């Protein structure tokens, strides 16, 4: 469903952009800006769920201390705001704001800096009051590959994991922040270079961390997106650097809808069927990675830029992958099946080690393999499932396992069975 809606909106957007061009002869900046803001609002309005009390508005955002944001071009909000007299704009409390969009006809360096600073201000006036941890929990599990700890136990994590926890916590609280430019840099390479050059100027500044980055930056056909597990996932490398930002040439409206609909699905417990079968996912070019470090009383993030040549990025079609569950060998199947029934397994159990020795399998390697497959967490000698509804299936003599709370595994199995019948 989401791909169909995104393709429809993308076609509509292209058509309406051509219509706007006919009226740009007015050569009046504010009027042209209003047209692009109006187009964005119209597109978003078509993508929202009418049964929810949400709408598209413009105006200002206020926090509980009475601090205000700059003028907001476009925001997705819940309920009715306070009307600003003699305008069609509104003031909304930040707790009722789901997403904030800064709209630009052209997105070049100065526009990028201006938009980035406005998105940063949304972070600065946020109340940081958590109402749900469902998104935080899923994101932490995917990125850190551990169960989400209680808040009182976060300090027991390694420092870089503590900082990822706090980053994801704030991401759960904040509205999605999106910069949407209709025109601008002509290539994915140029957008990447421009943004990283701007970031280099910010390095060393206090409070500079992944949480202040916009969730999505769109520039024509190219995008930069935060891989914070809401919904896109950036994994940690062997040196504990978190790949938290990526670039893409996929349909920008698909990326935008994925981010907004994920926010809505967690907030309103919307059935995941809105995402369709969810068997195809968008892939990103690696762009920025970060690791939090401390040196005495000094704390900060070290960033790495994944440079890619123009030719590597110059692809005609977006990169998409077919989702598949994790394939298990016989020993992994037995362990996962045990966990599904019993909930936990201590690897120091004598019977387990004897059995693995008899099977001529390395227990530590098996544990690491299951962690890499995002199925288990391993803490203090105990294996526990890293899923809510793990299921194991047998297909063509092979074992597979995956989280199935969204029905993704069921959809994959149905697709495999259908293909087998048609073969």
Average pLDDT number: 88
Q: Report strand order across the widest sheet.
A: 3-4-1-2-5-6-7-8-9-11-12
Distance between the termini: 26 Å
Query: What is the CA-based Rg, rounded?
Result: 23 Å
Structure description:
- It is a single chain.
- With 423 residues, the chain is of the alpha+beta class.
- Helix content is 39%, strand content 26%.
- The protein has helices spanning 2-23, 29-47, 109-124, 134-144, 159-173, 188-202, 252-268, 310-313, 330-342, 350-358, 363-372, 408-422, and strands at 54-62, 72-78, 82-83, 90-93, 97-107, 176-184, 216-219, 222-226, 242-248, 280-282, 285-295, 298-305, 320-322, 326-328, 344-346, 376-379, 382-385, 390-395, 398-403.
- The strands form four sheets. An eleven-stranded mixed beta sheet has the order 3-4-1-2-5-6-7-8-9-11-12, with helices on both faces.
- Helix 1 (2-23) runs antiparallel to helix 2, helix 1 packs across helix 7 (252-268) and helix 4 (134-144) packs antiparallel against helix 5 (159-173).
- The longest helix has 22 residues, at 2-23.
- The two termini are 26 Å apart.
How are the elements arranged and paired?
Layout: H1 2-23, H2 29-47, E1 54-62, E2 72-78, E3 82-83, E4 90-93, E5 97-107, H3 109-124, H4 134-144, H5 159-173, E6 176-184, H6 188-202, E7 216-219, E8 222-226, E9 242-248, H7 252-268, E10 280-282, E11 285-295, E12 298-305, H8 310-313, E13 320-322, E14 326-328, H9 330-342, E15 344-346, H10 350-358, H11 363-372, E16 376-379, E17 382-385, E18 390-395, E19 398-403, H12 408-422
Parallel strand pairs: 1-4, 5-6, 6-7
Antiparallel strand pairs: 1-2, 2-5, 3-4, 7-8, 8-9, 9-11, 10-13, 11-12, 14-19, 15-17, 16-17, 18-19
Helix pairs in contact: 1-2, 1-7, 4-5
């Amino acid at each position: 469903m989401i791909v169909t809606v995104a393709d429809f909106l993308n076609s509509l957007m292209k058509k309406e952009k051509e219509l706007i061009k006919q009226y740009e002869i007015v050569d009046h900046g504010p009027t042209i800006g209003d047209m692009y803001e109006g187009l964005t609002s119209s597109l978003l309005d078509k993508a929202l769920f009418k049964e929810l009390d949400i709408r598209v508005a413009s105006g200002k955002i206020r926090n509980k201390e009475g601090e205000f944001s700059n003028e907001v071009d476009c925001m997705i909000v819940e309920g009715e705001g306070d009307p600003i007299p003699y305008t069609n704009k509104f003031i909304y409390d930040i707790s009722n704001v789901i997403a904030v969009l800064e709209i630009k006809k052209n997105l070049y360096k100065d526009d990028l800096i201006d938009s980035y600073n406005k998105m940063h201000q949304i972070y600065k006036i946020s109340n940081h009051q958590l109402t749900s941890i469902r998104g935080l929990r899923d994101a932490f599990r995917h990125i850190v590959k551990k169960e989400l700890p209680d808040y009182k136990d976060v300090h027991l994590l390694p420092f870089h994991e503590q900082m990822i926890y706090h980053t994801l916590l704030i991401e759960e609280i904040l509205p999605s922040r999106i910069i949407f430019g209709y025109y601008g840099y002509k290539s994915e390479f140029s957008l990447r270079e421009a943004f990283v050059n701007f970031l280099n100027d910010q390095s060393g500044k206090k409070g500079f961390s992944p949480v202040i980055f916009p969730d999505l930056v769109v520039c024509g056909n190219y995008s930069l997106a935060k891989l914070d597990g809401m919904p896109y996932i950036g994994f940690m490398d062997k040196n504990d650097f978190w790949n938290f930002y990526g670039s893409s040439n996929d349909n920008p409206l698909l990326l935008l809808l994925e981010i907004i609909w994920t926010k809505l699905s967690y907030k309103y417990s919307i059935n995941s069927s809105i995402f369709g079968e969810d068997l195809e996912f968008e892939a990103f070019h690696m762009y920025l990675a970060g690791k939090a470090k401390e040196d005495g009383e000094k704390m900060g993030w070290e960033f790495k830029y994944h440079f890619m040549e123009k030719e590597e990025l110059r692809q005609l079609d977006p990169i998409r992958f077919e989702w598949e569950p994790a394939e298990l060998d016989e020993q992994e199947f037995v362990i996962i099946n045990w966990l599904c029934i019993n909930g936990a397994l201590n690897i120091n159990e004598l019977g387990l080690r004897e059995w693995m020795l008899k099977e001529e399998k390395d227990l530590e390697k098996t544990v690491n393999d299951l962690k890499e497959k995002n199925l288990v967490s391993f803490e203090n000698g105990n294996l526990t499932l890293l899923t809510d509804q793990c299921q194991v299936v047998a297909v063509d003599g092979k074992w597979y396992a995956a989280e199935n709370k969204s029905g993704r595994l069921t959809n994959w199995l149905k697709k495999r069975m259908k293909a087998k019948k048609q073969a």
